[in-house]
Write a structure and sequence with these properties.
Elements lengths: L7 H42 L7 H6 L3 H47 L10 H9 L7 H25 L4 H44 L4 E6 L8 H6 L3 E3 L4 E3 L2 E3 L8 H4 L5 E6 L3
Antiparallel strand pairs: 1-2, 1-5, 3-4
Helix pairs in contact: 1-3, 1-6, 3-4, 3-5, 3-6, 5-6
């Protein structure tokens, strides 16, 4: 069913579309960063392959500190990737948070016909939301863990390939698979975190509208597919006042991703819609 243009629901759909465009632009930038990493890694491997003996690859790799040097080079490349990835993801999430916060304000004032001054978000609050401090595993820690995992996988695949006597082209494909898998993982993280901060920004904006006298109700919406948690599916369509909590199993939350429990918040795709009442 087509959403009526100019309604709050219509504006929320537009918000999601614009958010998706921002996320797509970030994913393209992320893909470019990973392509550069793969290119540099393959060039370094090609340089090592040009110096080792095809008939005794493993021992030849160990000579003249070649193994240690290539591993250090790979680790250094991944370190730079990790820094770039964290900075890019943080900035993207900040932009998403600020965009959703302002966009919902514009939608709410337009639909309600009531205007009020939107106060700026505090830097400390923005940082806490982006880092997801309430859950316990911060964004920076997630990126750091991925860095350690990628270094381990690159090192282990390098040794496995040499042990198997693989040619450079086979080794290059092996590394391409490792890098591509890590890129896909980074994309999943970016999409999950983007959804979370977008919901947080919208909800905070709705609260500001509530305090300004625009009474609203919030409705929990679940994805309702095979990956949806049972407790979340039960909440689908439930509407309550803005200041009330949803009961999520044995936990409670003002909005999706807000229980403070990883088993409910991690990878949650649920979202809120809002309705203006008592105009």
């Amino acid at each position: 069913m087509t959403t009526k243009k100019g309604t709050l629901e219509w504006y929320l759909e537009r918000l999601t579309l614009e958010s998706d465009k921002m996320l797509n632009a970030y994913e393209k930038s992320l893909a470019s960063t990973y392509r550069a990493l793969l290119r540099d890694m393959q060039n370094s491997i090609a340089n090592v392959y040009s110096k080792i003996d095809d008939n005794d690859m493993l021992n030849s790799l160990r000579k003249y500190h070649r193994k240690e040097n290539i591993e250090k080079t790979m680790a250094s490349m991944i370190d730079e990737l990790s820094k770039t990835k964290y900075k890019g993801m943080y900035n993207q999430l900040r932009d998403q948070l600020l965009f959703s916060y302002k966009y919902y304000y514009e939608a709410l004032t337009t639909v309600s016909g009531k205007d009020y001054k939107l106060t700026p978000l505090k830097t400390s609050w923005i940082r806490a939301i982006i880092e997801n401090e309430d859950v316990g595993t911060k964004l920076k820690e997630v990126v750091q863990k991925d860095r350690v995992d990628l270094i381990y996988k690159v090192k282990s695949n390098l040794i496995q390939g040499v042990n198997n006597g693989e040619s450079y082209s086979t080794m290059a494909k092996r590394m391409q698979k490792v890098v591509n898998n890590d890129y896909q993982k980074a994309v999943r993280i970016a999409r999950t975190e983007t959804h979370r901060v977008k919901e947080a920004g919208t909800y905070e904006s709705a609260l500001k509208g509530e305090k300004a006298g625009i009474k609203q109700m919030k409705t929990w919406n679940s994805s309702n597919d095979g990956r949806t948690r049972k407790e979340h599916r039960k909440l689908d369509g439930k509407t309550i006042p803005m200041d009330e909590y949803f009961r999520v199993g044995s936990a409670k939350a003002l909005k999706p991703g807000d229980t403070g429990r990883a088993e409910h918040d991690i990878n949650c795709r649920c979202f809120l819609t809002y309705e203006i009442v008592d105009l």
